[in-house]
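Lecture 7 notes. Example A: sequence first, then its structure tokens.
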Amino acid sequence: MPTVELHGTHLFYTTSGTGVPCLVMHGGPGLDHTYLRGLDTLGDVLRPDYYDHRHNGRSGRPPLGTITHAQLAADAEGLRQHLNLGKVAVLGHSYGGFIALECVLRYPESVSHLILLDTAPVFNYGEAILENARVMGATPEMMEALAASAADDEDMKRILKRIWPLYFYRYQPAYDAVLDETIFCAA
């Protein structure tokens, strides 16, 4: 299992392909990078360098207070340096987009490209999220989960399972197996 010790924790990472080096920042919190592995098909254009953010997936569980945008960006920069990549493309999906933007702001000399997928520049639209969930037919349990905070990894998995159907135009119960494989809770 490839890991690197950085800033008081270890980060799990893996690489694929031969193209432009690209740090891939997953969504979440509570997810790991595996759901983005479809990017492997771009291996001749991008070389995805996947990693799990601190306190997510197979990476370490340092104190929760260390999970800040500044620290997450510093972790990405530390991984870039560890892998001796030079300038990299930075790809952020969902919450990973916030981290990607933070990287560009803090380490512009390290970034060659910025790729943002299903993200936003700010997270100040909580009421709009709740209203969209209502319009999509969210149950009271889903609405409660959207407002909940997780106590631990298993609790996060339980919360995400409740709101998972809201992420799809036409949700299929078979998607639950994908979620089970995507959310990795460390022992």
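Example B, a different protein, same format:
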Amino acid sequence: MKFFLVILSTLILVRNVAASECQRQYSSLVFSEKNHEIIFEKRADEIIFPASLTKVMTLYLTFEALANHHLKLTDKLTVSGSAADVSKVNKVNTLNLKEGEKISVEDAIKGTAIKSFNESAVLLAEAVAGSEIYFAQMMNRKAEELNMTHTNFRNASGLHDVGQYTTSYDLARLVDSLEKKFPQYRKYFAAKEFVFRGVKYKTHNHVLLEYKGADGFKTGYTEASGYNLIASAKRENNRVKSILIGCESYKKRDEYTKSLLDLAFKEIDRRRNNIIITLK
């Protein structure tokens, strides 16, 4: 996959978003979906911890398993001891599933994409590969296939591990490939809520809830990584994506992401004098 760098944006338009910029050292990348023109980037090739953005790869491999008829959306997954233990790591953000309970593949997908539940990600990994260890190996093989050359996965959920890392560029390759290969499943990243056992769970993605034209994608956080967000928005025939890693708070992450998306749409509207250099 090729990306393109819009020189004018990085040299001039960066000051338009400086007021809302994250204060921590962060990584960001904003690009158009249509032709992969990079509208803004900052440290996009630096190694970062993905946190729950890892779950995008978990769902990618789940969608492959559905396409290969290894899984069906209606299949029931039995909660393992490992998944039940993972559910206790974050006592607030959890389905509180107990070992031996059941959940459908589709509900596990929704829990992973919409609310970022760790136990649902582990259950999907186990369903696809038999164990999370084998699943991590699958994740790394897929990363290599997608030319994510600065990425390594160690688990399905995104719980912090110093050996689990990526870059904004690599995440862009992952999201781009997922949307092209599995357009029918994009709806899970665009959903604002889901219901499980009569309880309604609302997305962590406030940009999806608040920004005009927003239509996805995925949040992430650990103490080591900071607050992360892949966002997608569409206006008229233009869709742009923003990747932001390492903000100091979810409020600052959301504010800055909105500024970056605003920047992208303004730049698309006045693209006529841009100088474009092809990067491979």
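Note on Example B: Residues 1-12, 275-280 have pLDDT under 50 and may be disordered. The CA atoms of residues 1 and 173 lie 7 Å apart.
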